[in-house]
Amino acid sequence: MTETEGEKKPARVVVADDQTVVREGIVMLLGLLPGVEVVGAAGDGEEAVQLVGELAPDVVLMDLRMPRCDGVEATRRIRSQYPGTQVVVLTTYADDESLFPALRAGARGYLTKDAGGDEIVRAVESVLSGDAGLSPSVQRRLLERLSQPEHPPEPAPTDVAPDGLTARETEVLVLIADGLSNQEIARRLHVSTATVKTHINNLFAKTGLKDRAQAVRYAYGKGLVRPPTQ
Question: pLDDT (tens digit, 9 = 90+) per residue, 118-135?
């Protein structure tokens, strides 16, 4: 007997969450819903990657904050090693620090844990059909982010960056002068805070600066930024 549209096979799903009660609750919920078959459950990202290799599920419902291997790294590994498996993040967190790294790692869907069963099923079906499975709140956050300038303001034009600073070191210096913290600079430039610290150490070494206050004075003195107009 050939499969018809009405007899479409259920999506095979692995659930990954380090909290046993939450994981078992999601598995139980999905077991009551049509169109989904839970084939495995993992307690951390490492186990999730292993189960994907063994079971070849269609979708992983992935928590983010997990021991050993977090959800972002597990998503990156799954999408790299097993591209036939899609990932839908299911997490408590919808902040930028959670959302954007997960999407950059290859997640096709992103839901918060207050999502209902029907919303989870829709997200699973969406990613399997090639669409994104995003909750309304996440869609709004993405639109807000896309409406913001993608790059920080360009520094005031200069012929050559002073003291041999690279373009990125100059960018970091300008953002310091604008009053941004290391974490804020990292988010603005889409890099890690460790990378920002490396740039700061390099530019301090090249310019002989000792602290951020000196860096602000240096940036204004070199014309990299201008005082705000009254």
Answer: 888 888 988 888 877 776
